[in-house]
Design a protein that fits this description.
The protein contains 13 helices and no strands. By secondary structure, the protein is mainly alpha-helical. Helix 8 crosses helix 10, helix 9 packs antiparallel against helix 12 and helix 9 crosses helix 13.
Amino acid sequence: MPKSDRSTTNRRINDVGKLLVAGAEFADIRQFALAQGWTVTDRQVRRYQEIAYKRLAKVTNRDRRQLLGRHLMQRRALYARSVKGNDNRTALAVLRDEAQLQGLYAGADGKNGSMGPQYSPLTRRERTVRLLAAQAAGDRTQVGLLMHATPICTYLLPDTMMVEHLLHIMTLMYVSEQLEQAALCINAMFCDLIETDDEWDYVGNIAAYLFRIGREGWHQFTKAIGVDANFLFKENHQGTMLEQYGDKICEIAPSAEELQAKMAKAGNPQVRLKTADDNFRSWRRLFAQICPE
């Protein structure tokens, strides 16, 4: 089948683009191609469709300021024609639409005439910083004002992205908890060497136990959902303490029975010890809140 020259191909792609804007699907485009006598295969038609989509995307992604300027000029042209034709109602509607387009005021809600949110001229970064400062200060009024002035956006994202981000956040939580217990254990071991107080041995045993069940619970959770625990760990932690000392801490950690006996000796016989299964269920509940299936 002979290839089409460049001008013919461009003309066909432009025609396909017009059909796409009109809502045509592949079957409609294929029928159009047959009607026009294009000697092309379905693969070529799909290629035309793909290129046309890319051209349309490039046009629609044009800089927002250019689009805003074009829309403003179009409205002013409409306004001028309306005034010239003594059509005051249309002129007022055009003025109102232009004011809304530029954010001069928010539209009424259609029920009681109240005004909607007036978005802030602050940038997203500025609003975020002020929002965090207001939250830290406990200033609920400022938080409410900032939230009222913040637009609600809709983003076109893969539905797996939020779940993936949650798993990375959960990994950071896990790493933070493990670092805390590792630091307590190592510090207790050091203090036990220079002091004769049994309290440090007690603290070190608890920290080592919590470290071990923390690791076991996390690995149970990641295995249950089919995710590589080591991959998540390496993606979110660049330190060496957990790798260097993690196995050793688990080795010296007492069993639940041994720790229970130590706690009873210290005067806490009725305390229920947390287990690896408890940690597993906790991670699973958290994960299920955002990804139930």
